[in-house]
User: What shape does this take?
Amino acid sequence: MNHKLELANVTVKSIVILISGHGSNMRALLEADLPCRVAAVISNQADAPGLEIAKQHGISTRIVAHLNHPDRESFDSELALCIDSYQPDLIVLAGFMRILTAQFVTRYQNKLINIHPSLLPAYSGLHTHARALQDGVKIHGCTVHFVTSDIDQGPIIIQAAVSVHMDDTPATLAARVLQQEHRIFPQAIRWFCNGDISLSAGGKVLMKGLEQPGSALISPEME
Ligand code: GAR
Assistant: This one.
């Protein structure tokens, strides 16, 4: 079956979204009127609340349960088979909480995009908000990046920064960062689908004619 749509000689890109949980980032993508077709949402957790949201949007859902597999290689093979059945141009990790094997990442080189709740390369891995608070940083945020086999270290597409408040808890900080995730993630996918970003030989993201902001976020505010 051909999952790509041909419109007036323009091929509409097709994406597959991978989730593990709530799916609020996936929802932001589904509601962003992106210039692509969402072919399917795949979860490694059968009870991920995001699956229901995807169904409400009329998107096909699939479950590839990591618990049914003895190791990462075997899980990633089934995941790849499932993904390939949709022939997507892009695979989007929207709160997908599995570490992927180098083999899987290589198979989808430059076609895998992730969102991470920190200003990478700071705070890769888990518990990013608690660790930022522990360190007393004044600015924290989120990053959308291409995935490489170095976990959370691939080429950065877009970042958003928020100020850290004195009375923040991991939960309040996470909520403010998540609001920004919902803004920058659709933007990054739109850029990809419109061909506005590419990768340099040195592995950096190049942008086609985009405005560079002149403003600075200073936190706390200066007097
Ligand atoms: C988001 O904050 C996302 O950045 C994070 O999980 C959350 C998923 O929320 N992803 C990672 O930590 C990946 N390493 P959501 O399911 O509501 O989109």
Summary: The first helix runs from residue 24 to 30. Helices lie at 24-30, 49-56, 72-84, 102-107, 128-135, 170-193. The two ends are 62 Å apart (CA to CA). Residues 19, 21-25, 50, 94-95, 115-117, 178, 181 surround glycinamide ribonucleotide (CB under 6 Å).
